[in-house]
Design goal:
With about 400 residues, the chain is an alpha/beta fold. It is built from 16 helices and twelve strands. Helix 3 runs parallel beside helix 11 and helix 14 crosses helix 16. The structure holds pyridoxal-5'-phosphate (PLP). Pyridoxal-5'-phosphate binds next to helix 4.
Length: about 400
Amino acid sequence: MQHISSRLIHGLPDSQSSDLNRSLKTPIYETASFDFETSEDAEKAFTGESDAFAYSRISNPTVTELQNRLKWFSNAEQCLCVSSGMAAISNVFLTLCSSGDNILTSQYLFGNTLSFFSKTIRSFGIEARYTNLEEPQSVLDNIDTNTRAIFLELPTNPQLIYFDVPAIAKIAREKGIPLIVDNTVLTPYLFSCKQNEVDIEIFSNTKFVSGGATSIGGTVLVYGSDKWANNPKLAADYEKFGKDAFYKRLYKEIYRNIGACLSPNNAYLQLLGLETLTLRIDRIMENTLGIARFLQEQALVQTVRYGALENDPGYAMAMQLTKGKAGCLIGLELKDKATCFRFMNALQMVRRGTNFCDNKSMILHPASTIYWDFSREDKQKMQISEGMLRLSVGLEAIEDIKTDIRQALSVL
Ligand SMILES: *Cc1c(COP(=O)(O)O)cnc(C)c1O
């Protein structure tokens, strides 16, 4: 099978007949624990000599199938699925960082990720340095011997900025620091972390993978790297496991102790989602570009941000990194907050909701929701204006989306 769509539907060749009853769908192993035929088998499972299943907080056949398909999808060395996108982020940073360490990131972050950095890990003595990642010199200036990672989202949400990933990856390579990308908006289908020297990829399965917001889940993908040798916390693991040092520490310690495992039922739903992922994304890319162009023609819409639009500031980078398939999010600017609210309230099909990369089109006013408790100055710094809306374009017939937007604009 050459094409990713066929692979995601059929799974790995050697797993096609692995089910005892030749079930065509991966069975849901709703069990906490597994039986061993002999005590020797139990011992081997615990020492790691065999990969037999022992306990579902550690591994489960349904979750393993999802991990295998995502690993294949992304060409990563290892894959670990966890209970949410946030669990993926917390597992990664708790594996990499100790008190006194710092990480470099941008101020343009998913709300809970920002809160995790500025509150949760901060209280353990880990500092997030909010750096201008659009300026390579600023990245260099902020790196010191305690810097354990550079972390970014692509594109940022809701600003839709495309960072120069190759330039940042070059700095990360020269300094021996892992580059971590949150690839939730694009997925490995639209942006290849493997080809862009990313060391750890994380994403929320809740969005594109689940397909239609059926369940919460998250993924950590690890690419082969020797950078682990430079991290004092992982140095001993590196001597033992080499390129696998980070994954071993994550899987053998942090993941088990945090306990944010993915439930088998959610893994099943996400396997179902994965089967139609490329079909859905292809359609959503067509719809999103069509809607972005349509919005540009509307007099009441002051600006439209979408990386695949020729006049967008992110266009050149979006073309280079995603071949112009710039995800499902459009940023649009109306006159002010009141206008945004009237427009949103007049929409009849497009939902007012916080999810995105969903089958349904959805719209949100970031300033009054995700960023409601930030000051006006902070919002300005984050480029969150009062007239900004974030539209996530769904799978519906594009004419229906246009009709709804047109009638809601006519109310203004
Ligand atoms: C949704 C999201 C997350 C968190 O994922 P959950 O599954 O909701 O925990 C992290 N990063 C980005 C970019 C997201 O959109």
